[in-house]
């Protein structure tokens, strides 16, 4: 794991599982489908086909098989919030700021970066809370007069 976050506190926007070695494609697809059904609350429903699997028959050197999972989860906002809080505390005291301004950076760049991080947190929260709008995707019914006539060429 590249970051320490509890991914049960968020929802996956997309994810990818890569398998290397002698692995059955059918078994991988079946298991990934079962995993997605079992954990459907942790996946956004408004991105169709948001789980990708890849297979490579060549195993990594020294192993029979391996797998890698990469996911884009809204739980990452927890880390961004924590970093933002730590940054705010340090920036308020102007801790280490002289090192950066001495090299040509402006204080406004730090303020802008903080604002960008807060925007990112808000965006991830919006994605986590989003639900699919069935009205947008419903098939509209047409009167017979509105349906275009078939034209023979």
TrEMBL record:
Keywords: Cytoplasm, Cytoskeleton, GTP-binding, Magnesium, Metal-binding, Microtubule, Nucleotide-binding. Residues 1-83 form the Tubulin/FtsZ 2-layer sandwich domain. One of its GO terms (biological process) is microtubule-based process. Its cofactor is Mg(2+). One of its GO terms (cellular component) is microtubule. One of its GO terms (molecular function) is structural constituent of cytoskeleton. It is found in: Cytoplasm, Cytoskeleton. Tubulin is the major constituent of microtubules, a cylinder consisting of laterally associated linear protofilaments composed of alpha- and beta-tubulin heterodimers. Microtubules grow by the addition of GTP-tubulin dimers to the microtubule end, where a stabilizing cap forms. Below the cap, tubulin dimers are in GDP-bound state, owing to GTPase activity of alpha-tubulin. Belongs to the tubulin family. This is Tubulin/FtsZ 2-layer sandwich domain-containing protein. It comes from Fusarium oxysporum (strain Fo5176).
């Amino acid at each position: 794991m590249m970051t320490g976050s509890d991914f049960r506190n968020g929802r996956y926007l997309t994810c990818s599982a890569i398998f290397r070695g002698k692995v059955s494609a059918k078994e991988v697809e079946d298991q990934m489908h079962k995993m997605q059904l079992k954990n459907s609350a942790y996946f956004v429903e408004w991105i169709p086909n948001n789980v990708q699997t890849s297979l490579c028959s060549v195993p990594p050197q020294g192993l029979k098989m391996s797998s890698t999972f990469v996911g884009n989860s809204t739980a990452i906002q927890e880390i961004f919030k924590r970093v933002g809080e730590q940054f705010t505390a340090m920036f308020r005291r102007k801790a280490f700021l002289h090192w950066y301004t001495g090299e040509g950076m402006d204080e406004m760049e730090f303020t802008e970066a903080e604002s960008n991080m807060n925007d990112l947190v808000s965006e991830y929260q919006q994605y986590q809370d989003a639900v699919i709008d069935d009205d947008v995707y419903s098939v509209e019914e047409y009167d017979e007069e509105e349906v275009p006539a078939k034209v023979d060429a």
